[in-house]
Design brief:
- It is built from 11 helices and 13 strands.
- The chain is of the alpha/beta class and about 325 residues long.
- Strands 3-2-1-4-5-6-11 form a 7-stranded parallel sheet, sandwiched between helices. It has a two-stranded parallel ribbon with strand order 7-10. A two-stranded parallel sheet has the order 8-13.
- The longest helix has 21 residues.
- The radius of gyration is 19 Å and the shape is globular.
- The N and C termini lie far apart (about 40 Å).
- The structure holds nicotinamide-adenine-dinucleotide.
- Nicotinamide-adenine-dinucleotide binds next to helix 1, helix 5 and strand 5.
Amino acid sequence: MKNVLITGGAGFIGSHLNERLLAKGYTTILFDNLDAYYPKEIKLRNIAEARDNERCHFIQADLRNKAAIEAAFAEYKPDLVVHLAAQPGVRRSVQDPAPNIDVNITGTINLMEVMRAAGTKKMVFASSSSIYGNSEDVPFRETMKVDLPQSPYAATKKACELLGYTYHLHYDMDIWCLRFFTVYGPRQRPGMAISNFLTALQEDREIHIYGDGSMQRDFTFIDDIIDGVERAVERVNGYEVVNIGGSKTHSVSELCDMIDRVTGRKLQRTHKPVPPGDVRITYADTSKAKELMDFESKVSLEEGIRRQWEWLQQTMK
Ligand SMILES: NC(=O)c1ccc[n+]([C@@H]2O[C@H](COP(=O)([O-])OP(=O)(O)OC[C@H]3O[C@@H](n4cnc5c(N)ncnc54)[C@H](O)[C@@H]3O)[C@@H](O)[C@H]2O)c1
């Protein structure tokens, strides 16, 4: 059985992946600094149950601290890394790009350097649909030219994909960069649209919609993302960039109508100008994921919202 080190393992996607890999018999090492981007109590709660498993090890440390990564590799000798830790947030990166560059780029180089020295050859990296920028050519395919990132966040993800290629080329590392499309579901990172909207309903607050509601997103339910990552963990070989998305696109207005229907309540909508960095549409062509790893998304947006709403009601009891 493999030892898998998950950076960002206490976060939204990382904590779900951890549970999936533990259930499949892997040993996991969660490397996470519990960044203050959102409350660390949420992250500790995400992994509380999993930490009872003796095959799950948690290290609270920062990717900017190379010695801490070296110590983790010396102790646990991971066979494979799933690199999810990052400073997320498109809008915030436009206001304050430095932490993105520091964590996402320097942190990734630190990690790949330690992998190189330790002889750990396989990495699955969390890239992002934001890389496609404001392209109108939908659905997005991995072969498209993506040289116009609309935010520092997107630029850092692109930089990491490129660095991944050079590490593959020179150091014989197998690296797959998975471009995730707007991930939602139980434990979704606070601040993202669906999480914001459902919480606002619970708390009887109004919501802000950026623009006229016509902005479109390819929303991907967390279980589908984890299916994609698990398949990549099992197969990663060579260098690939692969879209992992729901392969459907919905406007924010459609999303709000759906939330009203599923919850039986009514979102109080107010409109605000579109912040810099936001793109008009995301929409994944996932035929490469199908071909490479037989991936297909399964959970409809309506079903996913229902599951996230049920989870939220349970957690807020
Ligand atoms: N959620 C999405 O819709 C989405 C879409 C595209 C890409 N992604 C990418 O997927 C990855 C996971 O996203 P998420 O939604 O689970 O976010 P998240 O914020 O819930 O998880 C990221 C985790 O990384 C940790 N972290 C941050 N900086 C760190 C550092 N310097 N050292 C160690 N750990 C650090 C955080 O504490 C957090 O637990 C990120 O790389 C993100 O950019 C997410």
